[in-house]
Each structure stands twice: as structure tokens, then as C-alpha cells.
Design brief:
Number of helices: 9
Order of helices and strands: HHEEHHHEEEEHHEHEEEEHEE
Distance between the termini: 69 Å
Shape: globular
Radius of gyration: 26 Å
Strand content: 25-35%
Amino acid sequence: MALDKYKLTKNPQALCDLINTHVDREESRLQYRYTTWALAWYYLNGARRFDLFDPTSGMVQPHYLDENGNMEYQSQELLSAIDRVSGIINSMDIRPKINRTGSALTHIRDRAIGQVIADAITKQDHLDDVLSQFAHIFVTLGSCGIAGHITDHPTVGLTTDYEVVHPRELYPFPSLGHDYTKQRGLIRERVVPLSYLEEIFGRRVRSNLEKMYYFEVEAGEEIDPYDGDDAPGASFGPRYNTNKVGYGGDNKKETTQKLVRIRELWLFSTHDMVDRYVVTSGDYVLDDKEFDGLEVYCPIGFARFMETGTFHGNGLFDLLFSVNREMEKLLKSLFNNIRDIDQYGILVMLRVSSTSVLPCVM
């Protein structure tokens, strides 16, 4: 990391405007990648015909049947390739490892004690689940993040908790353009329940709710305002839906929950240590901390599968989708031709001056 670092304003309103403008700019710049990720999800889950693929608006319209209402031919070679590479990553050991800082006996003892504590608070079954989720997103889309947390459970005690961070939640700061070596920070945009923010920041969250971006959904609904309806033939709408969704009935307060979209900014300094941490939602600053002189690191680790000179990189879907789709079309035509020949028993061949009907030799 270079020694130059960003010093942002301390004015709350100006800080919110700065972060909101930056995220909007990144959203617009990455619209094509978001649309491609939507295409990848539908394709790997069986959709083969797309009437609409518009990166400028983020619209994807998938269909599982062809124009005649028949099932499309599906080859799973792409999914098999992703699964093979994901299996290799799943075999990696991602348990925390403590390294000693010196060769003295005290350093060796401190390292051993730290390793015992790390092993005790890390559950292998949890790591296996996290690694499986990470591997699929990482290989398919080209990048992914893992966030680490330490929680004090009332019965289990001190334990680690890892969270897979989808790449669409992460943006570099500042905007990088063609030179991703100029990254000096990281922004994460995500949706969390209002109750979660109240547990962390207290009552002031609800008293300033009108300044924040929030909406209501029915409890149990998909907590993802970025996507449209996942039904076949549905379209992906804009990533920002400013409508507050309400449900009628006498038990509305009991069946709905408030969700808040927050944006977290980590500004980096020497050795990727965090110089400042800011949390905003809409026009309200939830948290703003500076760590001058302290050894604090960003809790999110980010990796790219295939380097392309961009922040998010490319995955196997970007590499193999076009070839795999063309192969499916050719095989579909081949199978249809063979079926027609087998059904009618004749083969029509065009000549220069006339059309001849020749018997088919089977």
C-alpha cells in the first residue's frame, strides 16, 4: 500500500453526500457486471433463452422453454468445470494460523498459546460451510470476500463467526478506472434488519430513521432489494427500489419487519491498516471512528479468481459461457436433424440448379 491516504470531511451531511455519490457512480460503472452475474445465476439454474439482456438498465429476462414451448437442450459442462475447481478450493485449510514474530523461547510459547486459543474458538463444521459458499461464488463470478467476527455466545462462549460477502456488496474507494493499484479504501453496501442496528447503536437509530434508507417487507421474504422476482420470465429491476412495501391486515406490525441499507467505508493507511471507519445510511452517519496510531485491520478479506486489471476480476463463467452456449446450440441442431431424418427417412439436399430428394441410408 502506498503511503498516500485520503482524509475525508468530518461534516456528517457532506460525508453522506460523498459516500452516496461514490456508490451511485460505482453502481453505474458496474451495471454490466451485475447483469452478467444475474445471467450466470439463471443459466446455472436451467434458463437457456434470454429475450432481454440490457446492461444499461440491469434487465435480464430468462426463459426455461424455447419459442415452441419445449425444454431447451442443456449441457452441464460449465457447471461441471466450476464444480471441479470449487472442489480444489474446498480442500484448502482456512483455519486461523498464528505466526511467531521471532525465534526467542517466549515468542514460540506465545505463538503456541495463540494457536491453541484460535483452534478452540473455531468450529470446523462452520468453516466447511463458509468455504463451500465462498468457493462457488469465487470461481463462478470471479471474486468474493470473507468477513471475520468474534462473538461471545452465552452458552458456547467466545467463538469465531465467518461471513461470505458477495462481490456485488463491495466497491473500491476511490473509483479505480484502468488502474486498480490506486485503491485506498473499501466500501460495503448491505441490507440489515433495523433491530440489528438498534442493538449496536442504541435508540438514536429509530429517532433518526426518517433520514435513513429503510423499507418494510413481510417477515420471511427474501432480504435482497436488488433482485426482482425469481420466477421464470421475471426481469431484474433497478438496484434501488425507493418504494416502501407495506402489507395490509390487522397483524401488519407483527408480520412485517423494517430493513435498512447501510454503507460501510474503511479507509486504509500503511500496511492496509484501517485509518478511519464510517457507517452511513441515507443522510445519517451511524458511526465514524478514527484509528490514528492504532493497529486495526479491515475485517473483510477480498480475493480475485482471475486478474483482469479490474477490482472484481473474472470467473469461469466469463471464460466459458460463450463457448458452452454455442456448443449447446450446435448439439441441439444436430439432435433435431437426426430426429427428423429418423422420422421421415429422406434427406433433402440442395443443388445448383434443382432440388433432389435422395433416400436416406440408415
